[in-house]
Design brief:
mainly beta, outer membrane lipoprotein receptor (LolB), chain A, globular, disordered N terminus
């Protein structure tokens, strides 16, 4: 994924005032990363534009986040369930409906694509380092959670418009590049400790390295 200095006391006073204003703006920024484990339902859509065509689609996901780990399950497209450990740099995927010998969980190395669900606004900044620091663009509410609207780059052409909660959770984000657009929004949110069972394959699944 594209998926990343005063020559006089007067000027000095101006610089101090600007610096204080900047500090106040910085203080309003939400945490860089989620400060709480959580469970959420998310609507996720994408649009890829290519010469002669492209593709688009979407899904509703159930996710659970605990520290560096993510559980992600498709609710519409019925894609494989995914467990990510960003500290171990590994992904495990499996078909929750599989039976018999097909009950296999495959482990792969994790790529470098930013994961906003886990890494919060730190992941948003990682999409393109040239966008610089986010600009605060107001307040909003998503899934009954108050959040701060942040703009990275030019959200209409190449950038991100996001809403990040006071707990550091990215509640909504629209990521735009010239040939790619992805948007996700939290539909239901519940902060709190997540059971360890979500971050390992269900009982009866055989763990293998890579695809068989």
């Amino acid at each position: 994924m594209k998926p990343s200095p005063c020559r006089s006391l007067v000027l000095g006073g101006v610089a101090v005032a600007i610096g204080a204003s900047h500090a106040r703006a910085e203080a309003q920024l939400p945490p860089e990363r989620p400060a709480t484990p959580y469970h959420a339902e998310i609507r996720n859509t994408y649009d890829i534009r290519e010469p002669g065509g492209g593709k688009s689609g979407g899904d509703t996901l159930e996710i659970r986040v605990s520290g560096a780990r993510l559980f992600e399950q498709s609710k519409i497209m019925e894609e494989k369930t995914v467990i990510v450990d960003t500290e171990k740099r590994e992904v495990v995927e499996y078909d929750a409906k599989a039976a018999g010998n097909a009950r296999v969980a495959a482990k792969f190395a994790l790529n470098d694509a930013p994961i906003p669900y886990v890494h919060g606004r730190a992941a948003l900044a990682a999409f393109d380092s040239s966008w610089g620091e986010p600009k605060i663009a107001g307040e909003d509410k998503v899934a009954s959670q108050k959040c701060t609207v942040l703009h990275y780059g030019n959200p209409a052409e190449s950038g991100i418009a996001a809403c990040v909660s006071k707990q550091g959770v990215v509640m909504r984000a629209k990521i735009v590049f010239p040939d790619y657009e992805r948007e996700f929004e939290v539909l239901d949110f519940d902060a709190g400790k997540q059971d360890e069972k979500w971050f390992q394959p269900p009982a009866g699944f055989r763990l293998v390295e890579g695809a068989e």
